[in-house]
Amino acid sequence: MQFDDDANLDTSEVQDVRGSRIPGGKATIGGGIGALIALLLGLFFGVGPDELGLSSGGDQAAPTSSSLAQVQQTCRTGADANTKEDCRIVAVVNSVQDYWTQEFRRRGGTYTQSPTVFFGGQVGTACGTATSAVGPFYCRGDRKVYLDLGFFDDLRSKFGASGGPFAQAYVVAHEYGHHVQDLMGTLGRAQNGQAGANSNSVRVELQADCYAGVWAHHATTTKDPQTGRPLITSLTGADIRDGLDAAAAVGDDRIQERFQGRVTPETWTHGSAQQRQQWFYQGYRTGDMGQCNTFR
């Protein structure tokens, strides 16, 4: 995955609170067994701390001036995105939101932008306070995506994914799939506590995978509104394979087998490895969000 070296990155779409202190309550889980329980319950991608019962108040961390200045100074162009991980995520957020802005407009609607919040260790959100163990998630309360960049190391070391820049892009695009669902009123179909291979929770997660694939289909043709050129200039078959590999690595069956030694479909909340790959590829192959009806 390559970005246009001359493109300007919009850092206003990312809030960096790494290193800031959270006022008020403490997160209810941390490392060790607590983190493992969070992994097994959350199974990553899309579950906010309120849904996991991990929230402890609604205090929100505010970006520090130094962290904001760091991102603004180091993540200015597509060339920065091609060489620095955090700048790459900024560029992916820009591309994903450019696509959905244009797609909503094409369909006669209005897309409301959602910031991504970079945090480290723990973070306060409108959904409560969460630790990095919850993984990347979208909070409906404040309509923000939360991401600890250290998760990408876990994706390789703990979950066996091959990694790569597009594996990271898949994670980000999946979370923005939840934001699209929120705007369209479908995210609420995943009710708290609902689980099972045929549950609405699984269907919501698979649809977010499909929406990630839809963005990937259009990634190299979605034009940056500032330059009139695509921000992403190259997306290869190897990139898509990295995305599919990441989708499989966080399938419910893979995670359960890896961490508890058995597969229990009645507790699934995100879908199997095969399902997650299938729906991501469905979106990528068709490029049509209308083909992402996982509730059918």
- Give the low-pLDDT segments: 23-45, 51-66
Number of strands: 8
Radius of gyration: 18 Å
Structural class, by secondary structure, is alpha/beta
Cα(first) to Cα(last) distance is 33 Å
Oligomer: single chain
As laid out across the biggest beta sheet, the strand order is 2-3-7-6
Q: Write down the secondary-structure element order.
A: EEHHHHHEEEEEHHHEHHH
Give a short account of the largest sheet: 4 strands, mixed
Overview of the structural elements:
- This protein has 296 residues and is of the alpha/beta class.
- 45% of the residues lie in helices and 9% in strands.
- It is built from eleven helices and eight strands.
- Strands 2-3-7-6 form a four-stranded mixed beta sheet. It has a two-stranded antiparallel ribbon with strand order 1-8. A two-stranded antiparallel sheet has the order 4-5.
- The protein is globular, with a radius of gyration of 18 Å.
- The chain starts with a strand and ends in a 10-residue tail after the last helix.
- Mean pLDDT is 85; it is low at 23-45 and 51-66.
Essential attributes:
8 strands; 296 residues; 9% strand; four-stranded mixed sheet; two-stranded antiparallel ribbon; alpha/beta
